[in-house]
Task: inverse folding
């Protein structure tokens, strides 16, 4: 059993019937990393250090050796060596608006490996998608940055 009792401070939110434990905010106590490819074991300390030093763009972080993204309470990572293809996918989502119907554009980053599409990550907007792809182009010179079925002209 680990000694985490000294960090367990509970705060009650007035708008909810649940408690939020402050210990979740401390680095390393509940930070869990999951590999998308399950290729090799990496020490948690190395992952934490790379994650802390990485650049954050929305829920995606660009580290020195890996790309990280959050889903719920989990942090997924994929080494740059495993990425074969990377591109933006814009999905149109039908929505009811105050003045009628319209389509909202949802920006996604798609990461592909040798096994196919490994992840589709929702981004906060088109600007974040462009910045993220530019950063990945610098770190992944051998990867392709177009969808597989796109025609090359």
Result:
């Amino acid at each position: 059993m680990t000694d985490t009792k000294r960090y367990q401070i509970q705060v009650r939110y007035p708008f909810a019937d649940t408690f939020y434990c402050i210990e979740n905010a401390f680095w390393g106590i509940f930070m869990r990393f999951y590999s998308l490819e399950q290729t090799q074991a990496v020490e948690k300390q190395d992952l934490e250090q790379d994650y802390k030093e990485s650049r954050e763009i929305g829920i995606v972080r660009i580290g020195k050796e890996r790309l990280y993204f959050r889903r719920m309470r989990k942090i997924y990572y994929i080494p740059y060596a495993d990425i074969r293809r990377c591109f933006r996918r814009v999905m149109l989502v039908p929505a009811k608006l105050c003045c009628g119907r319209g389509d909202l554009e949802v920006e996604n980053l798609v990461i592909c490996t040798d096994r196919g599409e490994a992840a589709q990550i929702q981004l906060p907007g088109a600007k974040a998608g462009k910045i993220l792809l530019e950063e990945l182009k610098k770190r992944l010179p051998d990867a392709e940055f177009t969808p597989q079925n796109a025609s090359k002209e």
Q: What stands out?
A: Residues 69 and 75 are 6 Å apart (CA to CA). The chain is about 15% helix and 40% strand. The two ends are 60 Å apart (CA to CA).
